[in-house]
Write a structure and sequence with these properties.
Organism: Helianthus annuus
Number of helices: 6
Helix content: 55-70%
Radius of gyration: 23 Å
Oligomer: single chain
Distance between the termini: 68 Å
Number of domains: 1
InterPro entries: B12D
Order of helices and strands: HHHHHH
Strand content: under 5%
Number of strands: 0
Shape: flat
Protein name: NADH-ubiquinone reductase complex 1 MLRQ subunit
Keywords: Membrane, Transmembrane, Transmembrane helix, Ubiquinone
Pfam families: B12D (PF06522)
Length: 91
């Protein structure tokens, strides 16, 4: 019984499905950890929850301006700028 179930689901055709689901679960887990550990609006401990609404703009700004956003801020919004320039610029 276990061998037929194993052979049914572990074929090479379903490897991309497992990879896609694994990547999706990884992204969800990463976002969950990021929100629990760094989001100023998420309070896990009872002491922080009892504080009510906080005006912590500095902490919110630090959360919103993360490293990826700072890296991408001054970049061109093109995926392949050299190829786009080759086909778009008449010479």
């Amino acid at each position: 019984m276990a061998s037929s179930t194993f052979n049914r689901w572990l074929r090479p055709e379903v490897y991309p499905l497992f990879a896609a689901v694994g990547v999706a679960v990884g992204i969800c887990g990463m976002q969950l950890v990021r929100n629990i550990s760094g989001n100023p609006e998420v309070r896990v401990t009872k002491e922080k929850r009892s504080a009510g609404v906080l005006e912590n703009f500095v902490e919110g700004e630090r959360y919103a301006e993360h490293a990826v956003r700072k890296f991408v801020r001054n970049k061109s919004p093109e995926i392949m700028p050299s190829i786009n320039a080759f086909f778009a610029d008449p010479k």
